[in-house]
Design brief:
By secondary structure, this protein is α+β, with helices and mostly antiparallel strands. It is built from six helices and three strands; from the N terminus they run αααββαβαα.
């Protein structure tokens, strides 16, 4: 009787363990179709917003020793750059902002540039950058969000 309970318990545990190991295979099967091309109703591939200018701005500003972190978003006409100044360099904040503005204008003459070292603007830009992967976001929506963030940056707090 005691041996029978032990054997039954071992079989139940074995079945449970075997059932749980197939979970990863099921997830992989459901993810197999994730690399299909998304198409619109007119048959054209959905255009993604080119973020090359934003990536160049981030790479350029990260080289500076007075900048802690940078995030940027761009459309075809506007470039939004938000950055954090390192703690010990905050005494020279205005000077750093002017230098960065001049550098960005020189590097990206074809863009309307909005730059800020305000933490709230940094967070909003980071949030916008995360939303760019959403397929429902087009350039017009991103442009509207950049305008809202620009208005926030111009407010006196």
């Amino acid at each position: 009787m005691r041996m029978r309970k032990w054997l039954m318990m071992t079989v139940v545990i074995g079945i449970l363990m075997g059932g749980c190991t197939n979970e990863n295979k099921v997830k992989q099967q459901s993810m197999q179709g994730s690399d299909f091309m998304e198409i619109n109703t007119n048959g054209a591939q959905q255009a993604t917003i080119n973020q090359q200018a934003a990536e160049q701005a981030v790479a350029h500003l990260k080289e500076r020793d007075d900048i802690k972190d940078v995030v940027a978003v761009n459309t075809s006409k506007k470039l939004l750059v938000a950055y954090q100044i390192k703690h010990m360099h905050r005494f020279y904040r205005k000077q750093i902002e002017k230098e960065i503005d001049r550098q960005l204008i020189r590097l990206f003459p074809n863009y309307q540039i909005v730059s800020s070292s305000d933490l709230k603007i940094f967070w909003k830009t980071e949030e916008l950058r995360g939303k760019l992967g959403n397929k429902k976001w087009n350039e017009r929506k991103v442009d509207q969000q950049i305008e809202k963030i620009k208005q926030l940056s111009e407010e006196l707090t």
